[in-house]
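Meet my pick.
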Amino acid sequence: MTDTGQQTGMITLQRLILPEPAICSETDLYVHRNDMTVLHVGGNEILFLPGGRVWFDTYMNLFSLNSWARGCTLGGLALDLRGEGRFHLRLIHLERPGGHTTLVLDEIVTLAPAGLRVDLTGRVDLGPGATGILILRLSALSEGRLTGGAWLAPAPDSLRDIRLALSVTTFRREAAVGISAARITAFLDGEGAPLLAAAGARLHLFVVDNGQSVAFPSDLAAHPRLTLIPNANLGGAGGFARGLAAATDAGFSHCLFMDDDAAIQMESLLRTAAFLQLARSPRAAVSGAMISDARPWMMWENGAVFDRSCRPRHVGTDLRDGPTVIAMLADAARPRPKGFYAGWWYFAFPIAEVKHYPFPFFVRGDDISFSLAHDFDTVTLNGVISFQEDFSAKESPLTLYLDLRNHLHQHLVHNALEIGPNGTAKIVAHFLLRSVIRMHYDSGEAQLAAWEDIMRGPAFFAANADMIRRRPEIVGLARTEAWRPTTPADLAVTPLPSHEPPLRYGRRMKWLLNGHLIPLFGLFGGRRRIPVSHRGLIWPLWGVKEAVFLNLDESRAYSVRHSKRRGWGLIWRSFRIYLRWRRDYAALRAAHRKGYQDLANRNFWETRFLKVQDHGGG
């Protein structure tokens, strides 16, 4: 919605926002309403006929006391609304999902363009033990409109100086990073300027160009709050290390790592800055959630937990459903589970608390390692979210190589994750058997290559920080799993059924390794066409001897086929590697722990940064 204005002595915590079509158009993530209302997205307002009702029990717009009151020092709370017309205003406090509700406000109000401020101080608990959420409901008693709304808190006597460096790493995505940078700088020049100033926050954007392909000032327009840093192609780890170094040298208090497409609404920056400004803990950090653009209504990751595998929190949550969202936020407010980590598509943290720089994974695993190595007080805030390309479309032998490599490294390095040689070998077995069952033998070969590379010790990571030699070797393993133009024969294959097979059948096929323990399975197994949205699942391949995978628009495909020779060859090779792994485990663990201290620091990266002139503001 439009800027509600910054009242003197008040900090905007979060504003009411509507869908931004270029980012997300799922209305029910923002507001629930009846048919007597109209969303005027272009005008960023809601129009009402008499009887029109809206309620903001939504992921983007409810106010979480679980997050704000427990995590921040709030000297008070106010609600500011702008618009026109007479409304029945209700503010409901829901203490816990399905629990007791309290009617905080129940008033008839008249909205005006200049704004209506409702003081909530003393009406709700704002202490560190506060629980629940606040839900705003408006019912129109006349024709009217809602043009803006915000939750405000009094500015403390002594404002914490928040200087937030936005570090974006890009590699040959000139158009995407140009669009993102333009949106961010426009926000800093426009509506964001007074709001951030009131919160005592200053922001600057650093774009680290690993591809050295961004033209300045054509792809990236010159701006006093933007600095372009050409860099060697050191992957996400090296790019973010470069951004962190630049932020540190320039005296910033906090750093925010973001992806180059930065598919966020600018409100995320406002909420992040306000939370860091008022946070009770100097170690406070903000982790943005992530949604796949293939399913913009479903949570993909609201923070994650690492222990033997990566487990996204609240994955699959339907963000259109109010009660489900409320339950998710209540769970997210509980103490962080062991192994919690934040994804680097959006992660803001205090620079003073940094003890280690990113480890040179190139990509995949650097964010896990960084979180595990630091004692940040990390929170997730509703509405602070990045919309990303569907991860299932990105899976390849290379990404699976990188995934397994970092999984093993984390368990070798971090004492809290120690599970011994057999425990770590079980991780490999899980990865490998999944690939064999899915007939993705190229991926299996890449995973065994990752295991062998880990056994080369930390010197391997030091020598391959840029992956310039190793990457093409792993990519070259993709023979059957290489995408190609779709043929009519691909489309003629039997499509995926609409439902999963019986659980009993799935269990049987699992224990039979999906036909690898069945003689002559290749003669009678089925053939199936599988969309990319189901690519990461196993059940579509039960009982299948050949599978054709299609991308989103079915223009490209690849096929995999049952092969006992390749499947059992991978299993036998993994057993031989395991014998060496068990023998050398103690020495490998010691070497990797020492290597982490040597490589996850600024001195290591300084020798690899590209020494060229930066462009733009400092």
